[in-house]
Write a structure and sequence with these properties.
By secondary structure, this protein is of the alpha+beta class. Helices cover 27% and strands 30% of the residues. The strands form 3 sheets. Strands 1-5-16-15-9-12 form a 6-stranded mixed beta sheet. A hairpin with a 5-residue loop joins β15 and β16. α1 packs antiparallel against α5.
């Protein structure tokens, strides 16, 4: 017998459909909130700066201890390179990282706060560390990155990937962003991590971050920069940043230090990770979304099959029970 429809009560088929839809929606919510990979947010451009196309490439060693310095890509003789943009003087120039020494003086010493939010530094609270700050300290070199070389802006598609390929030094290096005093810190690079660590920088970006060194001494920081061009090509380059951390650290020792710079292998690994790390910077999320929808669809089909199987079993049982009743009760 058909089940009567009464006010305030849904028929069996409608209730079944509603249950399936509710279950599917719940599954989508659970998958979206528990399986979405961690991602680094896009560094926010907030510093006014423009770079002239004719800024020269300086030669010879230079120790940069105070003032404005950026790392960034630039074309040199039609070749994609990673250079240091030196704005410490009245006339900005570009420098080869091998010839530029970044001096982090004792004026950079700060105390690690007693706050769980800074546990990612891997340094005990109360310990003194050297910090190149995100907000300029006139007594400390001010290091950031930019994607503002005019030809770079004309040729890249949407932005570049900057990757930490490796660090050699007496302690750890951590680079992080923090928007205001009350925003949580956002780690970008940690030398204690064994794998390449990429993050995305949009075209015409100029950003500064906090660079934290846990101990004085010489640090060599291998960095890669890659980009997709508007003509369909992909370009990449690597360079090594030289740091002399602490007043007592010898500049000669820093220039004499050598380390193998991971090149193609490290950059390839970083490019593979780019989708996960840069989704919030405009990267595609179609693959994770497709996986969620597919999982929900499979679950919905399974639920429907189970419900249909249950209805058929119920119908068979009712027929068998009716056949077993005495004639007078039929």
């Amino acid at each position: 017998m058909e089940e009567p429809v009464t006010a305030g009560r849904l028929p069996g088929r409608t209730r079944t459909t509603t249950a399936v839809l509710r279950c599917t929606l719940a599954t989508l919510i659970v998958l979206a909130t528990t399986q979405t990979p961690a991602r680094a947010e896009q560094p926010t451009p907030g510093l006014g700066q423009s770079i002239a196309a004719d800024q020269p490439l300086a030669t010879g060693r230079a120790e940069l201890a105070t003032g404005h310095v950026d790392v960034g890509p630039r074309y040199v003789d039609n070749r994609w390179t990673l250079l240091i943009h030196d704005g410490t003087q009245a006339r900005p120039v570009w420098r080869d990282p091998d010839e530029a020494l970044l001096r982090v003086s004792d004026a950079a010493l700060q105390t690690v706060p007693d706050d769980p939010a800074y546990a990612f530094l891997g340094v005990d609270a109360g310990k003194r560390v050297y910090v190149v700050p995100q907000v300029q300290n006139p007594d400390v070199v001010w290091l950031g990155w930019n994607t503002q070389d005019p030809r770079v802006m004309q040729t890249i598609d949407r932005g570049v990937t900057l990757t930490l390929l490796g660090v050699r030094g007496p302690g750890s290096l951590t680079t992080y962003l923090q928007s205001g005093n009350f925003a949580p810190p956002q780690p970008l690079w940690r030398s204690t991590e064994p794998k390449a660590q990429p993050f995305w920088a949009e075209v015409n970006t100029h950003t500064h971050a906090n660079w934290v060194f846990s101990a004085p001494g010489v640090y060599l920081v291998a960095v890669g920069v890659s980009a997709d061009l508007i003509n369909g090509e992909t370009v990449s380059a690597t360079g090594t940043l030289r740091f002399a951390v602490g007043d007592a650290t010898s500049a000669d020792e820093a220039y004499a230090a050598t380390a193998d710079t991971p090149a193609a292998a490290g950059q390839a690994a970083a490019d593979k990770e780019r989708t996960t790390v840069t989704e919030s910077a405009g990267g595609s999320t179609s693959l994770p979304l497709a996986a969620l929808v597919g999982a929900a669809a499979v679950l919905a089909v399974g639920l429907i099959l189970l419900l249909l199987r249950g209805r058929r079993a119920k119908q068979r049982a009712e027929k068998e029970r009716a056949a077993a009743l005495p004639e007078v009760q039929r």
